[in-house]
Design goal:
This protein is an alpha/beta fold. It has three domains: about 200 residues, FAD/NAD(P)-binding domain (3-Layer(bba) Sandwich), CATH 3.50.50.60; about 120 residues, 3-Layer(bba) Sandwich (FAD/NAD(P)-binding domain), CATH 3.50.50; about 120 residues, FAD/NAD-linked reductase, C-terminal dimerisation domain (Enolase-like, domain 1, 2-Layer Sandwich), CATH 3.30.390. About 25% of the residues lie in helices and about 30% in strands. β13, α7 and β14 form a beta-alpha-beta unit.
Length: about 475
């Protein structure tokens, strides 16, 4: 009998599960019927590419990797502009707004995240105010930018900063409101975040308000936003406003179905991505992506990891376990390891990367740390493109194991994030990292890399290089 899989959500989480199942569909003798339901009208969109489209690097349309027809042509019941209204776990059905009920053998919840909208903004009802979560939001922002002179961004994370860079690149006077003490607090310690702030101020003219202030009013004219009021009355001109703060897991459907939600606000799963209801994990219902809680690979505490890199791993686990269950082959069973959240971003010409915990996250978990920070060129100073890179490494004070890495520079960041993630997973100590041989060519690297300098500083050693 044909097995039916229904995927709720068409962001990268839902799409990657669908792609993984399509690749394995021929392995299922009885057949695999795939349905994906999403609210948006597009197919597979690279949301991470949208801020660069706003900077004018390419048209927004180019971020749509596959149109719905791509999946429809492969026999997928790919439903766009469709709202799911309920999950019936007893009857194994998914109800959509038309009243139709879709039966399933396996259900995948990939409902993503939703922005937290300040009350004053929600009440205003003015044009020119947008969140930044999908292609439709990007098109709204692009339209609002036309003829605008002032921009306001609420949020100091990657999305908010990339939106601010897009505005500044188009000549808009841009203000960013975020909390203290600095930028990108989920990824960087304040001293590293300050480097990003200084760069954006000096290179792009972006103004920052890093204080415990909220939007208290929004003022408009002719139905369009004209200014934002924060705190006790400070008014900031704004023809376009982006709310990019407080992206919460979208768990309404899960809550209504009685699925357990964790302390982080995300759906609780086991390491096979099965959801929990009552005292049991359900073998036929999975959850992944931005709506789902993960276990931190350093603190072993629950948290969120709303990153595409996390989703790709989770999607393989979900697909493996659906196929394993259908075929009755436990050898195909797969698990998701605790999460280290390797992160990299280009923000106005500056590259930012991190993996593992920050100093604040370690302190909250009661982990004492040793840290070392160094700045060095990425290749010999006499070669073109010899740009500086600042690296900060965190080690457990007792075991000396690497538990976090942060870097800010203009080159070779993504490769280093991946390298140091492997080092963390391998349990490398400061002593081992310091004494690891590294490749050398003056046109590509230094004989003694910045990683060594940062490690030695953490160890309290004076560098002799």
């Amino acid at each position: 009998m044909v097995k039916k899989v229904v995927i709720v959500g068409g962001g990268i989480a839902g799409i990657y599960v669908l792609r993984s199942l399509l690749a394995k569909r021929e392995e299922i003798e009885e057949g695999l019927d795939l349905t994906l339901v999403k609210r948006e009208r597009s197919g597979w969109v690279s949301t991470c590419g949208l801020p660069f489209a706003l900077r004018g690097w390419y048209d927004i349309k180019r971020t749509e990797i596959n149109e719905p027809k791509f999946f429809l042509d492969q026999g997928v019941d790919f439903r766009t502009e469709t709202e799911v209204t309920g999950l019936n776990l007893e009857d194994r059905t998914v109800k959509i707004a038309t009243g139709e009920e879709l039966p399933y053998d396996y259900l995948v919840i990939a409902t993503g995240r939703e922005p937290s909208i300040p009350e004053a903004v929600a009440k205003a009802g003015l044009k020119g105010i947008s969140t930044f979560n999908n292609e439709a939001d990007a098109r709204e922002i692009e339209a609002a930018m036309a003829g605008a002179t002032n921009a306001f961004v609420r949020g100091r994370g990657i999305i908010g900063l990339q939106a601010a860079v897009a505005f500044a690149a188009k000549g808009l006077k841009t203000t960013v409101l975020g909390g203290p003490p600095s930028l990108l607090p989920a990824s960087l310690d304040p001293d590293m975040g300050d480097m990003v702030k200084n760069w954006l101020e000096e290179k792009h003219g972006i103004q920052f308000i890093l204080a415990r202030k909220e939007i208290t009013a929004v003022r408009g004219e002719g139905g369009r936003v004209k200014s934002v009021v924060i705190g006790d009355g400070e008014e900031i001109p704004a023809d376009v406003v982006v709310i990019a703060k407080g992206m919460r897991p979208n768990v309404r459907l899960a809550v209504e179905a009685g699925i357990e939600i964790g302390d982080s606000g995300g759906i609780v799963t086991d390491n096979a991505m099965h959801v929990k209801r009552g005292r049991s994990y359900l073998h036929d219902v999975f959850s992944l992506g931005d709506c789902t809680e993960v276990i931190d690979g350093i603190t072993y505490r629950p948290r969120l990891s709303q990153l595409a890199s996390t989703v790709v791993v989770q999607s393989k686990v979900v697909a493996d376990n659906i196929i394993s269950d259908i075929k009755g082959q436990p050898s195909l069973y797969s698990i998701s390891a605790p999460c280290l959240s390797p992160t990299v971003a280009e923000i106005g010409g500056l590259l930012v990367g991190s993996v593992g915990v920050t100093s604040e996250a370690a302190a909250r978990a009661g982990i004492k740390t040793l840290s070392g920070k160094a700045t060095k060129l990425v290749k010999a100073r006499y070669f073109p493109g010899a740009k500086p890179l600042t690296m900060k490494l965190l080690f457990d004070a007792y075991s000396h194991k690497l538990i976090g890495a942060q870097m800010v520079g203009e080159a070779t960041v993504a490769e280093r994030v991946n390298e140091l993630e492997i080092a963390i997973r391998a349990g490398m100590t400061a002593e081992e990292l310091r004494n690891t041989e590294r490749c050398y060519d003056p046109s590509l690297s230094l004989l003694v890399d910045v990683t060594i300098d940062a490690t030695e500083k953490a160890m309290g050693m004076a560098s002799v290089y």
